Structure formats: structure tokens, C-alpha cells
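Support reply, case 0932

Customer input (verbatim):
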Amino acid sequence: EVQMSEKLPDLARRGLLPTLGGGSHVLVELPMMGHAFYAEHVLFELALQGLTPVLAHFERTATLPVGAPEAEEMVARGYALQVNCENLLGRRGEEVTALARWLVREGLASVLASDCHDAGERPPGLTRCRRLVEQLGGLGTFEELTWHGPARILGRT
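Our regenerated output:
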């Protein structure tokens, strides 16, 4: 996961931007504490270079100008939206939960993530979201978001 920065397109041009599985997708974290006025331009520049932005825990940007109102536009541009299991379960407040669930229900989420940082305090635990994801998106949605979507991103389909 790389933090949104005006430097990302230059890093990509120089071959220094890490991608997922060495492919063409880059996991980008949008700012949490404010609006980066340059974010849409940076994402567009990455796309022009043949990279596909995967927006990490997109639902957590719900109160920011780059959040919910533009989710459909981001997907239409070919960007992927990652949703975190803990946010679907309501661990980050009502607004974040509502957006996460809307993204899954509307078929805008591409990947379900655990936001695992370590095995102790923040262990992986996607299975606890299975029932909710299937209720929101329908039968097969959990497999799509945890297996098929990630496989496409890694170029393994």
C-alpha cells in the first residue's frame, strides 16, 4: 500500500512504484485526514502509464470529497475499490459501515481485505464477513471479492 502523493507518477515512470504481484495494479491509500486536491490527477496519471489504481479501504474516505459520491466514477475509470471486512462489520462508525455495505451491494467493490497488520492485534479474519457479504451482494460475492477479484488483479485468471 502506498500513500497518496504527488510523487507517485514520477516514481512509476522511474520503475520505483511497487505493484501488486509485480503486475500493473498499485494499491493506493487516499488521505484520511483531508482532501488531497491532486488525488484525481495522480490516479489519472498512473492510469495513463498503464497502471490500475486499487483504492485501499475506499469506504474510510466517506466524509471526504474523494469518497462516496465518486465511487461509481472511479470504477467507471477502471480503478478497483478495496473494502475492508472490519468496516463492513461496523468497526469504524456508521458512515463508513454504510458506504462499505453500499459498495458491496452495488457491485462496486473489487476486493475484500482484512486490513491485517499482524497475527496478534489485527489478524486476518475474512471468514467472519462471509455471511454479510453474501447477504449484501448475493451468492458468490464473497468468493468474487476474496478469490476471483484478487486473482484478476494479480493476473492469474
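We compared this against your earlier run and they match. Two observations from our side: The two ends are 22 Å apart (CA to CA). Residues 141-153 form the longest helix (13 residues). Please reopen the case if you see a mismatch on your end.
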